[in-house]
Structures are given as structure tokens and as C-alpha cells.
Amino acid sequence: MSLLVGIDVGGTFTDFVAYDHDSGRMEAWKVLSVPTDPVVGILNGLNAHPAGKTAIEHIRLGTTVATNAILERKGATVAYVTTKGFKDVIFVQRGNRRFHYDMSWVKPKPLAKRRHCFELDERIDAHGAVLKDLDEAEVARLAEAIAADPSIEAVAICLLFSYINPDHEIRVKQLLGEKLPGMPISISYEVLPKWKEYERASTTLADAYLKPVVSRQMRAMRARLNEDGVKAPTVVIKSNGGQMTLDGAADSPVHLVVSGPTGGVLASCQVAKATGIDHMVTIDIGGTSTDVSTIIDGSERLTTGFEIEWGVPVQIPIIDIRTIGAGGGSIAWIDKGGMLRVGPQSAGANPGPASYGRGELPTVTDANLMLGRIDPNNFLGGKMTLDRARAERAIASVAEPLGYTVMECALSIVRIANSNMVAALRSVLIEAGLDPRDFTLSAFGGAGPVHVGELMIEMGIPRGIVPNNPGQFSASGFIMSQARVDRQRTTQLTSYRFDRDKAADVLRSLVDEAIQQLRDQGFDDDVKLTKQLEMRYLGQNYELELQVSDEMFERSEHEDALWAAFHDAHKSRFGFSTPGEIIEIVNFKVTAIADSPIPELPRIEKASAPPQARRHRLVTFTEGEIDVPVYDRDDLRAGHAVKGPLLVEESASVTVICPGQNLSVDDYGHLLIENAAQQENN
Amino acid sequence: MRLSANGFYVEQYRKCCNCGILVYGEGVRNPEHPKKLYCSDWCVEWRTSKDRGVADPVLPIKQPKLPFEAAYPAKGERIAPYDLVTMNILDSTMVSVCREMGILLMKTSYSTIFNEGLDFTCALADAKGDMIACAEFCPTMIGGMPLLIKTCAQEIDFKSLEEGDIILHNDPYRGGLHCPEHTFFRPFFVDGELLGFAVCIGHIAEIGGMVPGAFCGEATEIFHEGLRVPPVKIMKAGKDVEEVWKLLLANTRTPRQNYGDLRAMIASVELGCERIAATVRKYGKAVFKQTCEDLMDYAERRMRAEIAEFADGLYSFGDTVENDGIVNKPYRIEVDLHIHGDEVVADFSRSSDQAKGPISATLGVTTGAVYNGMFHVTDASIPKNSGCFRPLRVVARPGSMANVDYPGPLVAGNTELHPRLANIVIGAMSKCVPERSMASEACTSMNFVFGGNHPEYDEYFACYDLMAGGWGGRLGHDGNDCVIAINGNCRFNPTEVFETRFPLMVENCELVTDSGGPGEFRGGLGYSRTLLVREVPITGSQCTDRHEIKPYALFDGLPGGNGSTLVKTANSSDWKTVSEVYGKVSTSKYANVVFEPGDRIKLTTPGGGGYGDPKKRARESVLEDVREAYVSSQSAETDYGLKG
Questions:
Q1: What is the full DSSP assignment across B493-534?
Q2: Per-residue model confidence (pLDDT) at position A541
Q3: Where do the domains of chain A lie, and which CATH numbers do they carry?
Q4: Model-level pTM?
Q5: Are the beta carbons of A645 and A454 closer than 8 angstroms?
Q6: Chain A residues lying within 8 Å of B476, measured CB to CB
Q7: ipTM of the complex
Q8: Cβ separation A95–B107 shorter than 8 A
Q9: pLDDT at residue number A679
Q10: Which of A493, B73, B466, B593 has the most CB atoms at less than 10 Å from its CB?
Q11: Scanning every residue of chain A, which has its alpha carbon at the shortest distance from the alpha carbon of B105?
């Protein structure tokens, strides 16, 4: 037995999925998390596997170390160093506000105190020319000032225009490094060589802020695993879904700001690949929140729009996951205008939905229970019994003032919750210029499968899929991950007097940097490269991303093809193009992936007879109350096909398939759902 | 409103002498003063009561109706009960459509004021011109929207509209805000029936006029402020009306940029129509129309429920604008909020007569400012559609600061007077709900505009540079530092973007210590930037305020710090005002100053006013402010009474 183990450390549970290279089998389990010391939960779970620790060949871990340090603002005391005159950029920020009309809003503070901000009298201009030389004596005085303040634990440096000319930043790092041995130092050119000084400074600050705590924890974890006899190489999952060694994480911890939630998207990518689906939209519905993401042409989408909190950006590439406050625990209530609303307040885990037996307020889970979609006696695989009478009372408390019956009200609650989730789906699909009719909805998390059918209908998404182990789906994504480095740099060039050599140089140096970063961490597999340019019409402020070939910029005809491709892309995304207009290239991007083998998804037995329903249950849909068959997921075999409405139950969830939808089971045991009668989408 | 017989031009803008709305048709006369024109009996009664000395008339609101609206049948009895689920779905879908329109505009437009500043709004309206949904972009425009569309509806026969028509309009006296704000609206049809409009309003930075960037601090007539466009079709049945395009683009210094921005706005309303028409087809016309009515009724109920919680009474507040750029004298703005039951009348009649310079507000601006102020003291989650405006009535005397008459200049009314008007509405509410109020914010976007010939691209450039000061203190929190004034939600231009685009250098970006008005809850700080003119001269103009009069405090706080604009010319070593260097009347409002290479311009924004007695501020907060240099140790001692 030779195990590859994916681990997702969550707030309540630590999830494990192990893939056995020898048998090709996959298994999933979970243990309680130990929030005060996550390593204990990890070790407990590893020890729970019967094959023993020696069978473990490789560990891949989704970690919350960086996320928590940032959320709780428990990182290092950072000294911030910038160009003379600009230390307040991180306090001034961008000047916009989070909400219209909310006078109670408090503008966020940056990750450094104003009294720990320092300036250097140097200046580089917008073309990279040095207007004022760096004064090394001034840097020496700066080192003394930092050394004189014992509270300072790390240094972040962000000088103006360093993304064009990094000489001053690199020299300051070197000089401070000599004078302040052991002091963690982050420079903006290495963290995020892109324009816009506030965003770059904020990202660099986050890196420095995390360095002491992450490197401490990574070292400690390795030592504890060793002590416990777990010798297997261990990697952590970065925000871009790629692997990174523990040392790599200690060096550039900002890449860990989002780790765990990437797993569901990575796993969906593999499901998409195995099943031949091009475009997928993933929805992970939990108790208090819902995560939505898209997969286009088999690949996850990255964004640089992450924020620690609103207005405090960390612009490293992360998998684009949109989170909204809607889930099974979302509370239904009536506002002052007589409207039934659902969420964003949630009953959470405590008191939880009314039917859990502690709370009084009606939630989405209570509504699903009343509608017969959730079985009160078979919740969490029968580990918990739900209190139907209590759910009914809770829902009646909002039904009566509205003049609804309990069932009408329950259905309205579920449909309004769906409407909130559809808003999130619209934001990642339609508002991003994507057509829902081209997509398959991949639903997981405890409540994802409950809502999948109705969401498909409301959103006009023709196909849906419920993967295996929807409750531990993230951990299974980690075992599908590969090491990955994304590098990007701002270098502005225009189609008007285009400098081809410069373009070729920038692209080449990004490729070298990316490959070097993989090699430095010991990933020596073949490297897969993709290169992209972010382009726009001169004067615009947002870019379209175009993939470019290896030989781009070698000959001028490639260039012409590039400009033509941009006009086409603009037309297809925005409905118009402006031929003849000057085009500007803003950012160069390179992705390098160490092409290590990815485990194949295991297959299930083929069907030899039609599936047998375990029982029947009355379930309420928009169409009315219907007696529907209930299947056990374990009973389903590859090739089974059944017409909805129906339910499929498994230990962590239940899949609800509506009237007018069909279920089929593929070779891997995925539940595939189709809208039989195609509705026109909005 | 009197148009020429063939409708080609306006002969006279006729307004109600009480509320200031345009009167189309005969209007209503008051038998006692037969020369005075009113829009409605409500206005006759309101003005008569006030003239008789009734300080706080109790008069249930009747909204003014334009003749075309009166032609619509009154709302009948509902047949079916409200469908809460459909309301919810349709509202969220329509808001998403508006957001999608905005994202497209942001991503494809050329001016920084659009794509960094986000100075635009996207909305959907029904066939009567009522706003049924909008996305949160620029709040000023949201309030102005219904008036804009209705004015157009009155002048363009909607029955003549075809699929693919796009109407463009920017006339500030006809519902508009100021000339740079261009409104595009495109009708959408389902089965040949006109069901409404996709609308987009955006700030076009350069529209000709006396100065590059439209903000002429010394304008005395609308003709100095750029091209005024009455409602015209820029597209007909999906085809460009070339003559209109050519006229527009011939009257700007930056035709290439404007072309890009106008195209982006057209793409945005086209997208909106396509999406909303598909939505209507999905739910059916009858359901769509009924649900829109239900949504507006719902927003109205929410707003009435909020107002009903306020104690009845008359709440008044005022503030002073230091000068108008032409005459060095102050102007007063005054609001009387009459709250009765679940309705509010905001009467600005006591404000000064309109200014000679460009700082007066149009009716659209004042109306929007009242909505904006009231939204700040009520539940922010009320859907923003025409329904929530119904319990609010604005009375803005024509020819006053709150309702400028043709041909008075007004470009800064939208950016500078809107926040002041919205702030005094909140100020008046501080006497009713002190816990929901805030001391004065800086209330200026600085509006420094400049242009010149770009040495690299051999093309004229124009820039609208925005800055912002501090928020006022509020119960429980200090004012935020450097947040955009209440009328917009624009972002500042990063120095690295600014220097890449324009041949100037930014030398610093620094908070101003002690600019936050002292208070138990301190005002937020303003900040300062110094611009160095490099290779080529630039022509600069500005419309700001608060160089002389400080942002006011509430409840025994102290006012915020003043802003300033100072110049150090290449051959001088002193910082001086533009009045000192160039002989301008006002230091805060001026036009066409040529700054030569080597000159420096230092722009400083005001801080916000303090809330509550500074002596009551927690000692630890004062100490931390001193450690962080938000407050000097001297101010800590004198203003906050910190000892030792």
C-alpha cells in the first residue's frame, strides 16, 4: 500500500482523502479539528488509517495558518519602507467606500502602524529612469532605526515604479539584510511586480506580516510529523491551487491566504476532465456560506482581486472563488415592507436550524425538512434526528403574518434562498460575460446536492453533476494538485511603435523565474508552461487576457495576428471592437506547472439491473406535492438512468432531482442531472 | 416649458415658483397671485401656507406629475396577491443586469473618471419613466434618474420610438445634473410593446467649453461649461446618426477618448435591453409589469416605515459656501425638513439666490441630494427604485442655490453643492436622530482639471483629478480619513497610473496632521499631494471650497481643517495662493491658469468636523492619535485637554 493523502483542516472537522497508488482505490474520512493546535487533528486523522503511517508516501495539506493570522490580525509587527513623500499611501488608500449610504462604516487600517513607516529619499520615474539615486548612508540609518525598535519583526519594502526598475528595492533588501541578520524582508518586486502602488504595497505588507508566523508554524509542523514517525514529504496548497513545499511557504507565505477552499475547484477540474465536460460552475453550499467558482475549458480561473477585508487587497493569483452568506443555516424573516427575506443572518452551528432542537428561528434547512427533501431520521447518515414539529413551529411564525400555509412558506423560503444563490451564479457567469447554457453545475458541500436541481432550472444551466464524497470534496482535490508557479509583471508596450525585443525579453525572464522557483523547491518533473498577455485599447483601464504561443514575438506576422486576436476577443466579450485603435499590452503572465502524474478517478461497477428505490416519500416542489422514490447512492451503478422527480441519499447529503429532470450515473459514480425540457435561460 | 413651434429649441424654461419643477403645458395658477405659475395645487397650498407664516404646514404629499404621466391610467386594484418569490427573483435579476451594464462600461471606457473613478450609474426604467432597478455605482445620479427620463418622455413621443433607438441627453435644466453628465437611454420592446428603458448616465470628462475638463471655476453662463445636448437620437433603429456624432466630437478637445466612452455607454444600454427583454420573455409581460409595480410599492412601504419612526417636527440646518469664483461673497444653503407621519418635505426656499459663478445646483442635483441624505439615515437595504422616493417631496425655489435658472452656470453644483446639500439634510436629521448623524465631511472632490499636449503621443490630454478629505465624526466612530464625498464613490488615481498617463510628477501623498476636527469622535483627516509640472505646460482649473470656511462640527465638537491650493512657481521659493500669483478672485475656484514646467501645485483636502466635546474623548484614543501623528501633542493639550 502506498498512500497519497489529502488533508483539509476546517473549523469543525479535518477531512482526509487517501488514494492508494497500488489498488487505485480512494477513501475518505474525517476527525474533529483541534482549533488551538491543528497539527493534533492532522496526526489523529493519520493515525486513524489502518495501513499505518509508513504506508503514507506523500501528504498534501490545505492550511488555514495564513488565513487565520490575517483574519484575526495576529501577524507580525511590520516596518514599512517606501519612497520619500509616500508613506501615507497605505492609509489614504483608494478613497472609495464600501457601501453607499452607510454612515457607520469604518475604513480599514493597513497591516502596519503609521509610526512604523519609513521613507527613503530616492525616485524612479514612469519609464524606469532614476531621478534620484539611492543614498546608502540613509539606508544604513534606516537599519539602525529599525534595529532600535525591538517590536519590529519583519520589513516590507515598496518603492515607486519598482515594477519597471527594481534596482533600488533589491539594493535596499541587500543592505538591510546585512545589517539586520535574520530579519524577514519582503520586497514588492518579488511579491507582486505590478503597477498601482497601493495594491502592490498592501500585498507586500501581507507577505511580511505573515512571514514570522508561517515560517514558525511550517517548521514546527515538520518537526511534529517527524517526531510522530510521519516521514512522508509534505506540501501545502497555495491560493492558486498549486503545491508549495513547507520551505517555499515560509519564504512567500502570502501565497497561502486562501488554501483549503481551492480543493473543491481542483477536484471539480479533475471530474470535468474525466467526464469530458469543458465548462463547469461549482457551488459549495455549507451551513453559513456558499462558494461559487467557474472552470473554463477544463481549467480553474484565477483572479488577483482577493482582499483581506474590503479595501485591503492582496493581489497574488488565487483561484477565483466568490463567497456569499447563504447556506442551510440562513434565517428567514419578514422586513418592515412585508417582504420575506432569507439571510444573510445565519443560525450557524449554534443554535443551528430550529430542527436541530436548540434554536427557534426558521432556516433553509428547516424549510427543506418540511418540504420532505431532507429525511429527519436520516440526517448525516442517521447520526442525528431532526425535530420536524419544531421546524414547523418556526416556519409558522413567519407564515402566519404573511397569510401563507406552512408548506407555501417553506417553499418560498427555499426559492428565495435559491434566488440568493442564483445571484451569486449570475455574478460569476452572466456578469463575467459567460453563457450559463454552456455550463454544467457541480454541486457539493452538505447542502449543494439539495439545491442543485432547482438552481439548474432557475439559472438556465442545462446539466448538473454531484461528485462522489460531496462532503469531503476539498480534500480529494488536494491529491489531484500539482506544483504551480504563476509569475506576472507590468511592462507597458503599445502596438504603436511596438518593441518586439523588449516583449520577448520580459516573457523569457518570467519563464526563467517561474521554472527556477519550481526547481528551487525540488520539483523536477517536466514543466508545462502557459503564457498570457493582458491587453486593452490604449486609454482603457481593464485588460482582456490572451494566451500566446511560444514563438510569439519572434516574427512580425505573429504580432499582427496578436492585434487581430485582441480585436476579436474584445468584440466577443463586450459586443464591439475598434479596429485601427492603438492596443496596449499591460501585463505579462507566465504559469509553470510541474507535470507530476495525477491519480485517475476510480470507476464503479456497471449496472446489471435497474436501480431499486429503498422507499418513497412525499416531497413538495413548485409543481405541488409528489410521492417520489428515494435511492441510496451506494445502490447506484454505472449506467443507471432514472426520470425525476426523485431523491438520492448518502451519508453527508441528499440530492434532490426535480420534475422534468433526469438522473444518470456515469462510470465513476457521479450523479449526472439533465433538464429534460430545456427552458429558455435569462 | 416653452419650445419653439417646430420643437427645435427652447424659448423659455418655465418652472413652478414653489418646488421648481419644469412646467409643461398650462400649469396651475394661484388666484391670489395670478402671475405666479405652479405645477400643482399642492404647491399653491404649500407656498400659500408658508407665506401666511405657517412654519410647519401639514400637507400630505402629492408628487408633481408631468402631462404625459397624467395620461397613464391610475393604478387599479391588484387582482392577484403579491408574489414574494417572483418579486425577489425579478429584483435581484434586474439589479444584476444593471451591474452587468456597469461592469461593461467600467471595463471598456477610456476616461479615468469612468474606469478608475466609476463616475457613472446604470439603471432600468419602466415605460412611464419610473426607475425600477439600479446598481450601486454613483449615488448622485441615482436620485436624478427619474426626473431625467420623465423630462425626455415629455419631449420625445415614446410612441415614435423603435427598437435600436438610443436617446442622448445632458441638458442640466431639463432634469440633468451638469453638462459632463451624459444620459443614454434605449427603449426595450417585447412583442412590439414598449416596456421600458435601459439607462446609463456617465461623466464625460472633456466636452469643450472654456477650460479643458469642463470645471471652469470662472464660468458665468452655461455656454462656458461645454456642449449642451437636448434629448436627441444618437442611434436610430440600430444605426449611428452620423450627424449627431460629428457634432458631438467636433466640440471636444479629446475626440478619440470621447468616442471610446460614448461607444462604451452605448454598448452598456444595448446589453441592458437585451438582458431585460429576455427576462420579460421568461416571466411574461403581465407578470413583469405587475411585479415592477409591486417592487416600487414595496420600496415605498419600507421607506414610509423608516420615516414613521422619526418624531414629527420641523428640523432645519444650513451651511455656507465661501464664494462662487466670480464674486467674493458667501452664499447660504438652508434646508427645512418637515416630517409628518411617514412623509418628509425638504424645503430649500430660505437658501440664497443663485450664484454668479458655477456653484448652484440644478433641481436634479438637489432632488438627488435629498434622497442621498435620507438614504443615509434610513435602512440602506431598501431597494433603490422610484417607489422609495414617493414619501419624499423636494421644494427648491427657482433662481436659488438649490435650483439654478437658465443660463446660470452650474458645473460645480453637482460635485460640490450636492454633498453640501446632502450633508445639511443629515445635519437637520441630527436634531431628530443624533445617533444616525455625522458632522460635516470635507464635502469636496477638489475637481482639479488640467490639459495639455502630450509629449509622447502627440495628442491633447485632459485629466479630471479627484481627491477627498475626511468624514465627520459620528456616534461611536471617528470620521474616516480621505474618503470620497457623499455624492460619488470614485477612486483616486494611483501615482503610478497618473505619471504613466500624464507628463507630471507627484511628489508626495501625505495625511494632514490635526486636520480632523477635534471631538469625542474626531473628524477624519484630509491629505495633500504636490504635483510637479515636467516637460510641457499645462492649463489648470479648479472648483473646490472650504479654503476659508471649515467643515462644521456637531454637539460641541470642533470644526475640521480647511483645504488649500498653493502654487510654487519654478522661480519662486514660496507657496502662494492662485489669487496671490495669478490675481484670481477666489483661491478655490479659478480657470485657465497656465502652469509652466518646474511649477508645483500643492492640493490639500479638508478634514471632517468633530462630533461631541473633545474633552470627553477617551484618553487612550488621544494618546494613540499622538503616537500615530494624527493629532499633534499641541492640539492634544489645547483641544483635548490632555495633560502630562
A1: PPHHHHHHHSSEEEEEEEE-TT-SPPSSBPPPP-EEEEEEE-
A2: 81
A3: 3-70+215-256 (3.30.420.40), 73-213 (3.40.50), 484-594 (3.30.1490), 615-677 (no CATH)
A4: 0.93
A5: no
A6: 104
A7: 0.94
A8: no
A9: 44
A10: B466
A11: A574
